[in-house]
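From: lab user (bench 3)
To: helpdesk
Subject: output format question, protein + adenosine-5'-diphosphate

Hello, I'm new to running complex predictions and I'm not sure whether the block I got back is the full result or only part of it. Here's what I submitted:
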Amino acid sequence: RNYSGTFKRSQLRLEGVKDVIAVASGKGGVGKSTTAVNLAVALAIKCQLKVGLLDADVYGPSVPMMMKIDRKPDITEDKKMIPIENYGVKCMSMGFLVEKDAPIVWRGPMVMSALVKMTRGVDWGNLDILVVDMPPGTGDAQLTMTQNLQLSGALIVSTPQDIALLDARRGANMFSKVGVPILGFVENMSFFKCPHCGEPSFIFGKGGARNAAASMGHNFLGEIPLEVDVRKGSDEGIPVVISAPDSAISKAYGDTAQNV
Ligand code: ADP
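Helpdesk reply: Thanks, we reran it on our side. This is the complete output you should expect:
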């Protein structure tokens, strides 16, 4: 059944899910998945909300590794997948369904139907917020997700670098075009604080995402520094908001989650 285009946005609600927010970036590699994961966990642990995390990055799913989930979901009697919970967040990812190192070599229509199954074919239960880690870019897959879900808003992740911001602006404009409100910009890898002298270095430029948000009339939700603990958290499957809950970096994620 093809949902796209044939339903009004108000008819696209996911039963039991209050708000669905997309975490998007124009470019890959800017930390979209890392931000989605840490925000989802911060929303669950720090803001005490019922949170789901949908990894819609079908070609490069990161959630299984970042959330340390290494099994397939169980199925309900009415053939819905049961999301797998870790760190207080109910997760669903294409990565749960395929072998770890297997390439996903699908053509567009298969990706679209997988995305629809991963949203509507899942028993999410009651959620305050479903965080969707979107595929990078502004192509078919992104449009399918925006057309199949009643998104409450989109959050745009970018580094401060001009080349990343160019694509981030494109991403923001795509959402605006299809009537999805932009919740705001999050700047990732804002600066690197030297562990020896404490001096910040603005490796990718200073304040780029804040300025881009301001120039487009969007909110700025927070800045996340480049930090080894964030990278370690992703690789080890323990998000930094769990492994170092009282650190400055966790506070940055917590504040950003509050702003969302
Ligand atoms: P994307 O989803 O945009 O492709 P990822 O979230 O997968 O990007 O991040 C790319 C890489 O950068 C990952 O290895 C991740 O661990 C690392 N990374 C992301 N954000 C940070 C950060 N703030 N500090 C350190 N490493 C980061």
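A quick orientation on your result: The first strand starts at residue 17 and ends at 24. Let us know if anything else is unclear.
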